[in-house]
Specification:
The structure is a single chain. This protein folds into two domains: 116 residues, Roll (Thiol Ester Dehydrase, Chain A); 111 residues, no CATH class. It contains eight helices and 15 strands. Strands 1-2-3-5-4 form a five-stranded antiparallel sheet. It has a four-stranded parallel sheet with strand order 11-15-8-12. The chain is elongated, with a radius of gyration of 23 Å. About 9% of the residues have low confidence.
């Protein structure tokens, strides 16, 4: 076999190995030029620029690159707008109602990173840019009021007026601060050690990724959502991680090394972004989170189609 043929075979072999891994990423195509990679929490878009014949020949390539970047940036904004914010709202609708958010997001997106530049035989140039969902962008889009119902591991919340444990899942009234009490009596760690996160298997249910999804019990009471998480953690890593394989999700840094794995009953909400679990499952999640506090740090993953 010639060296050239050997190299071709090796390239094809590597590509075939890589395909299954790439196919497992949870991605959302927005138009023809934008992609939301929910698994990696990366936004990606492309733009094509043409050389300006009115410029000196030596400046045409640089001009085409800048033109491609402008188009890619415009497409990146459309990609952001195409995301689902929560089960009732898209980012597009949220931005339409708030001019300040539009200005802020537009400014944040200018900090994009160029990850690929292609020079076409026609003279046109295609530029691919990326922007992380976490950090500044999440800070601009996630609800300002988050958290307030969970405490440190091994302890429970106590009502400051009656001294009794605060009911799991009950919202804390505005202006009230719960006291920290002793560990729940009789509560034991799961076999294999304390739970380090939560995986909810919603495969086959048509769940759509969102920035601020919820887990609900059968009566519609919130088990997990924006009022259960630290906003700092949500901004840093996102409220939920998404994967297509439950076994692979177990080794994800977000939930490793001993996640609680449960099954969803169905999806809910206009955007099909929320998950409904059985009441018994909801109680299991609440009991585990009351002592381990993994919900506060967004140690949650959803398994989707």
């Amino acid at each position: 076999m010639s060296i050239r043929r050997f190299l071709v075979v090796m390239v094809l072999f590597v590509a075939l190995i890589a395909l299954p891994a790439v196919a497992q990423y949870v991605t959302q195509q927005v138009g023809n030029t934008g992609v939301v990679d929910w698994s990696s929490q990366i936004l990606r878009s492309t733009g094509i620029g043409s050389p300006n014949p009115n410029l000196p020949e030596t400046a045409q390539r640089a001009g085409a690159i800048e033109a491609a970047k402008r188009v890619a940036l415009r497409n990146l904004l459309e990609t952001v707008k195409g995301m689902t914010l929560d089960s009732e709202t898209t980012v597009r609708n949220f931005m339409t109602e708030n001019d300040v958010i539009v200005t802020r997001v537009s400014g944040i997106l200018r900090n994009f990173t160029v990850v690929d530049t292609k020079y076409m035989s026609t003279g046109d140039i295609e530029v691919t840019i990326e922007m992380p969902m976490s950090g500044a962008l999440s800070d601009a889009l996630l609800p300002q009021a988050m958290g307030g119902t969970l405490g440190v591991a091994g302890q429970v919340h106590v009502c400051p007026t009656c001294g009794q444990p605060w009911p799991a899942g009950k919202p804390v009234p505005q202006g009230m601060t719960l006291m920290t009490g002793a560990p729940v009596s009789g509560q034991t760690a799961p076999q294999g050690g304390a739970y380090t996160g939560l995986i909810v298997d919603a495969k086959g249910m048509g769940l759509r990724p969102a920035m601020a999804p919820k887990i609900l019990d059968e009566s519609g009471q919130e088990v997990y959502g924006s009022k259960y998480v630290s906003r700092d953690w949500a901004v840093q890593i996102g409220m939920v991680g998404y994967d297509k394989d439950a076994m692979r999700a177990r080794s994800n840094d977000r939930v490793t090394a001993n996640p609680l794995v449960v099954k969803a009953l169905r999806v809910a909400g206009e955007n099909k972004a929320d998950i409904v679990v059985a009441n018994a499952t909801a109680a299991m999640i609440r009991d585990a989170a009351a002592s381990q506090n993994f919900l506060d740090k967004c140690k949650v993953m959803f398994i989707v189609d």
